[in-house]
Design a protein that fits this description.
about 20% strand, alpha+beta, 5-stranded antiparallel beta sheet, Alpha-Beta Plaits, binds flavin-adenine dinucleotide, Uridine Diphospho-n-acetylenolpyruvylglucosamine Reductase, domain 2, Uridine Diphospho-n-acetylenolpyruvylglucosamine Reductase, domain 3, 7-stranded antiparallel beta sheet, 18 strands, about 450 residues
Amino acid sequence: MSELTKHLESIIKDKDRVITGRIERKYLSDNLERKVGTAEALVFPASTEEVSKIMKYAYENEIPVTPRGAGTNLVGSTVPQGNGIVLDFSGMNRVLEIDEETFTATVEPGVILEDFQSLVESRGLFYPPDPGEKKASIGGNISTNAGGMRAVKYGVTRDYVMGLELVLSDGTVITVGGKNRKDTSGLDLKEIVIGSEGTLALITKCVLKLIPKPEEALSVLVSFDSLKEGIECVRKVIKANVNPTAIEFIEKKIVQLGEEYLGLKFPERDAAAFLLLTFDGNRVEIENNVAQLEKTVLENGAGKVLRLEDQKEAEKVWKIRGVLVKAVEAVSEQEPLDMVVPINRIDTYVNFVHELEKESGLRMISFGHAGDGNVHLCVVRGGRDDETWERDLDHALEILYKKAYELGGVTSGEHGIGTSKRKYFFRETDSANIVLMNQIKKAFDTKKILNPGISYVQ
Ligand SMILES: Cc1cc2nc3c(=O)[nH]c(=O)nc-3n(C[C@H](O)[C@H](O)[C@H](O)COP(=O)(O)OP(=O)(O)OC[C@H]3O[C@@H](n4cnc5c(N)ncnc54)[C@H](O)[C@@H]3O)c2cc1C
């Protein structure tokens, strides 16, 4: 038995929670399971105390540690770099408190998003962050600053994190933020940890902001003859001040993949592209906003506006939207990208992608959060052999990221950098920014044992 195993088993008495030897592939990878790392141990901690003791030992012995939530990331940020410890937080999954007086919830990081959303909604409360993958964990959502469908109205995960309990790389436990609505007391350490992809500290407790649950929601499907017209219309919709919760754009060709994957039919089939919107609030508010939306889109190139009043129909459409990444994956390997550009450049960017698709011969499927400029792009491998795929993909990615930056955009809107986007992120980001990021890393994690080789970490 190795020294590491001996030590881990002295901290965690329950043998099922310390796995050494053969570790299942999924724990050494991300959602795509293409890149696989190595680790000497996989550990399922059950308390902050256990995490702290493990980190103290890892720090003293300079053992790399890879934190892991539900492993749904798409960028290789849970692929262990170095033969160390994978810390899987799925067992720390208790909702510790729902405080209806401060409108906060305190949860452990392994709580699953959809379970948490259902729980708070059953109490008339609402947790708005809503990334496509509902089986992700709250700790993973915070570490990637997950966005998703409702970001256009409600913002992203960052906007709902009020406090965190953190275990630092040497095992020290600290609390940052809390239940206060405002805080200008020194540097905001919480904000720097959010979105840091497990590179600065381990999240062991989260205080989340809740809001009252909107009374109702209504989704609306708007059809266009071309994606260009649909996307150009988005700014008009935003300007019309109709306050949608979500504005998603989808091309018909990818809707068809979603339909085939799920065996469901979209209610409107006679269009090249769609905008899918949701409105929430009370009935009067929704009626006024949807009426104004109809007027705006019909004056700006829309063919049809379909109100999805039937709840089942609305759920079906959102289900198809939610499954698009998986639907593409089912047909061919693909590289998922999520660059973000200023909202007034999204049409330029998507048109550029279409041109590149024609020139390069690589199939590129785009959909995404039109309301916040976040383009989800799947570059599809098709029948290419390994070498051709690697070369063609790299060439296309260089062009795609370069263009995004030219338009004022950045590498990732919500998925993070992980391992798969590092090359392009480093190429496009000012070196002074990278240096500063690594100085911050050093201040948090002197020995660089937390998620080494991920994201900005050099
Ligand atoms: C079908 C599909 C659709 C998706 N749609 C969206 C979307 O719309 N919007 C969006 O933002 N993302 C989306 N994603 C990406 C993914 O779901 C998110 O990145 C999610 O936030 C990851 O959560 P997780 O629990 O799976 O974290 P993991 O994948 O396990 O980890 C993600 C990162 O967080 C770190 N981490 C995890 N837990 C902790 C912790 N306790 N302490 C410190 N670090 C930790 C890991 O080291 C890693 O760097 C989608 C993914 C899929 C598969």
